[in-house]
Design a protein that fits this description.
This protein has 563 residues and is of the alpha/beta class. The protein folds into three domains: 136 residues, 2-Layer Sandwich (GMP Synthetase, Chain A, domain 3); 136 residues, Beta-Lactamase (2-Layer Sandwich); 278 residues, 3-Layer(aba) Sandwich (Rossmann fold), CATH 3.40.50.300. The chain has 23 helices and 18 strands. Strands 12-11-13-14-10-15-18 form a seven-stranded mixed sheet, with helices on both faces. Strands 6-5-4-9-8-7 form a six-stranded antiparallel sheet, covered by helices on one side. Strands 1-2-3 form a three-stranded mixed sheet. The protein is globular and about 80 Å long. The protein starts with a helix and ends with a helix.
């Protein structure tokens, strides 16, 4: 069932879910980007995939099902061959003695429904599903990385040395790493040489998972393939190298950044996967509390000043900056960025990548950007005094500047800027807001359950005065306190966690904090006055998410300690 642009307009624009201008822009962009209009609308965060599914289903008069929230009956699911499921765009996901529930991209296909009823000898109840939901569900048919890899290794063993097919099979091995890394939403793929083997690990939701062990003899072949893809020197084995390439999976293009460094047992490879199409999370879903979300959205409306996002490596700083840029990116403003590297392409924004070989540093790139008449400037990271000074001066001269810094919390960021040689009066004049964050794993919603707090956990609470105070504000009687955990299921690969969410503290530069900065107060003093004037610290935000069943105490302690 093809949904025409006219039908889309009727479903989304006429009822007011989408503006006429946004719809026209999506139609126009679909021609140049060769992408479906609805995919562009969803990618740009104008509507969620599930919401579109509900509206489309209502329009054709069929019920909608979100397959990602359903528990699959494996026997019913695998009773439909994968080739049939892919070609007919359907998923049999559940059923009982009287009926089978089938998700279909075209639930009006009565002929197919009759075929299924004959197959199952039961009534078939069709549901409308979106194409994104269908493609995600089809991944269940894969045998798994180990099964596919074992098949390739068997074929390699049966192949004569030097045979062309062996080279093709080595290409297949690397393709499998990339494909399965992307399918499993891995942020990084690690290929690590040991004495007699090569270990493959994926970083998923911030945690490393060993997925495969290969014979050491394959290391050189894998290295050569990846170096060729990333345009690196294949004859260099004693120096660190960086490169990048792009690969395609289904209709998605994924950028891969490669880092190779020499180690005792060979060369260590880390591939970071960057897929713009998978970035469906927006600022509203980042984990910011309602109060902090309102504050951030109000501050970024300022025509000038500086917004800083801080935290350690891998805490989601760049993602937050991109989510803010998505909100600000309209035809009425000129936005420019200087990044190292440019992680995601954003339509309508001029993006410059730092290049050490040509001498294009953050500072030089930022100087050039200021002459490009931008309204908003994004600096990937403030690393040194020169970049900090130019960024501050840009914020003073009528630009809104967004950037990131490495700092433990929002209060620590201000003394760091002073240490970089920025005058206190410039800091208080330009900084509008500082967002400090970490990422914690989310409990799997499918197998999550509540439980009464244990005596051991009560002891942990009572040992930490700050922790105890926060908990007591929420629940006076610890004996009646309920927390959450997950059993582990197929949806979360038995880990108990699925996805990640941010925990935040958002510091607005009020008068009390400005006075402390002008006096060059310590980060401890600044933090105290910020909390006194209403800023919940990151630990408080983490505990709120624990009590609401979003994450666990262990996760909060893992990323920020015990308060």
């Amino acid at each position: 069932m093809k949904i025409t642009n006219e039908k889309l307009k009727k479903i989304l624009v006429e009822p007011g879910y989408l503006s006429e201008d946004d719809f026209k822009k999506a139609v126009k962009d679909s021609h140049s980007k060769k992408k479906a209009v609805i995919d562009l609308i969803i990618d740009n965060g104008l509507i969620k995939d599930e919401q579109f599914g509900q509206l489309a289903a209502a329009d054709i008069g069929y019920p909608f099902v979100n397959l990602r929230a359903e528990k699959f009956n494996e026997k019913i699911f695998y009773s439909i061959p994968d080739l049939v499921a892919k070609s007919k765009k359907l998923i049999a996901f559940s059923g009982d003695d009287s009926q089978v529930k089938v998700g279909m991209a075209d639930p009006t296909d009565l002929e197919m429904i009759h075929v299924l009823e004959k197959k199952f000898s039961k009534r078939v109840k069709p549901y409308y599903i979106t194409m994104r939901d269908l493609n995600q569900a089809l991944l269940r048919y894969r045998a798994g990385l180990k099964g596919d890899m074992d098949d390739v290794l068997r074929r390699i063993k049966n192949t004569e040395e030097g045979n062309i097919e062996k080279d093709e099979l080595m290409i297949k091995i690397v393709d499998l790493f990339l494909e399965y890394g992307y399918i499993n939403k891995a942020s990084d793929i690690h290929i690590e040489p040991a004495r007699e083997e090569v270990v493959i690990r994926f970083r998923i939701d911030g945690v490393m998972h060993q997925v495969l062990v290969l014979p050491k003899e394959f290391l050189d072949l894998i290295l050569s393939r990846i170096k060729i893809m990333a345009k690196m020197r294949i004859d260099e084995h004693k120096a660190a190298q960086d490169g990048k390439f792009q690969f395609k999976y289904q209709n998605n293009y994924i950028d891969a950044r490669v880092s190779i460094v020499p180690v005792n047992e060979g060369e260590n490879i880390v591939i970071r996967l960057l897929a713009a199409s998978s970035r469906e999370v927006n600022l509203d879903e980042s984990g910011l509390s309602n109060e902090n979300l309102k504050l951030v959205k109000a501050i970024i409306k300022n025509p000038h000043g500086m917004v800083l996002v801080t935290g350690p490596t891998g805490c989601g700083k760049t993602t937050t900056i991109y989510e803010i840029l998505k909100i600000l990116n309209t035809s009425k403003v000129n936005i420019a960025t200087i990044e190292d590297p440019t992680e995601y392409d954003i339509e309508g924004i001029g993006q410059i990548q730092v290049n050490a070989k040509t001498g294009l540093t953050f500072a030089k790139g930022l100087r050039a950007l200021v002459r490009q008449d931008p309204d908003i400037i994004m600096v990937g990271e403030i690393r040194d005094q020169e970049t900090a000074k130019i960024a501050v001066n840009s914020a003073m001269t009528g630009h809104l500047v967004l950037s990131t810094m490495h700092a433990n919390d929002s209060a620590t960021t201000l003394p760091r800027l002073l240490d970089m040689g920025i005058e206190p009066y410039l800091v208080v004049s330009t900084i509008k807001i500082i967002i400090a964050q970490r990422l914690v794993r989310k409990l799997c919603e499918k197998c999550r359950y509540s439980y009464k707090i244990s005596p051991e956990e009560i002891k942990i609470i009572n040992k930490n005065e700050k922790f105890k105070k926060i908990i007591f504000e929420k629940q006076k009687n610890l004996d009646k306190l309920y927390l959450y955990k997950s059993k582990g299921c197929k949806v979360c690969s038995d880990s108990g966690y699925k996805g990640r969410v941010g925990i935040f503290e958002v510091m607005e530069m009020n008068e009390s904090i400005k006075e402390k900065v002008l006096k060059k107060a310590s980060s401890v003093e600044i933090e105290k006055i910020a909390e006194k004037t209403g800023m919940p610290c990151m630990f408080v935000d983490g505990i709120d998410k624990v009590l609401n069943g979003i994450t666990t105490l262990d996760e909060v302690f893992r990323v920020i300690g015990e308060g």
